[in-house]
Structures are given as structure tokens and as C-alpha cells.
Predict the 3D structure of the following.
Amino acid sequence: MTDLEILEQMIKAAARVATTVGNGKASVTLDEPQSPDSSVIISGLPSDAIVMKVDAFQSPDAIFCGSKGECKRADYVIVTDSGTKKRIIYIEIKKTKDSWKDIVKQLEGARCFMSYCQEIGKTFWNDKDFLKNYKSRFISIGHTSIPKRRTRIERKSGRHDSPDKALKIDWPHRLQFNRLAGA
């Protein structure tokens, strides 16, 4: 069984976002959960992509104190296994903007969620290599409700492979998956 088949069995359909497939590539519209008029379209997803709403489950604040941001999580995670391009992409969407410190904590929380999923796959699906060798990419998308400006992309430094070096995109129009994936 592939990693993506395990994820499909593991994650409820209500926590996944449907993609639209055409010509072997998919696209997805991601909404900012607190603002239905705020969204972004990502084109060129591999057809095998699984898009999850990470904040669909209840906050773990019934267990954790939350004093360090451990209850936060980003809006979406995209997982794809297109041959040699195994990627897990963490995405936080903001209608306007938020403090960078809070965005980093949300991206870190989503990474913790995926680490938990990885352990569940290893233990309950008995797959010791579940989600192994995937590269992580972290994206912060802001100003999604203001389409009148030109898209601005800002890299902190090098690859956006950690929450504190997330790729920052403001005023997005139509985004391409390969650019987000850092392929």
C-alpha cells in the first residue's frame, strides 16, 4: 500500500479538500477558514495530491496549556508522491496579515500533526517507512482578499524547508505547485 493510500484511509473525507483534475494535473482552491471571501487557487498539482484541512480537527487545548503555541496549526497540508518529488507542503493563509511569530507557530503545529500521522501509519498500518524521505516546504500566503495588486513572493533565505524560512506570498493570483514545492 502506498503512503497516499494509507493517508486516504487514515484521514476522514471531511478533512480533505477535493481537487479538480484535468490533463493529468490538478488544481485546488484553498479558502481562508475564517473568511469565505478569501481564497487562493493552486494549479499544476500532481494528480495524486492529497490536500488536508489541518485545522479541521478540534484544537488540542483540552490537553495542552498552549503557552508556547503548541495548540496552533496551519490551515492546509498538501502531500504528494510524484516519483522523485515526494513533498509535504504546509500552508497558512491570511486574509490580511498576522505576526510572523504566530505564522511560524502555526506552521510548526502542522508539522507536528504530520509527525503524529507518520507515527500512526508506522504503528497501526505497520509501515515502518511511512512518509519517509519526503521533503517539507512551508508557505505563508497573505492578503488573499485583495486581488488588485501584483503577486509578491519573498524568500527568507535558500529553500523554504523550515517554518522560520517559509516562503511568503502576498496578493496571490493563481499559484503554481512546482514553485511552492521548490522542485
Q: What stands out?
A: Helices lie at 3-10, 100-124, 177-181.
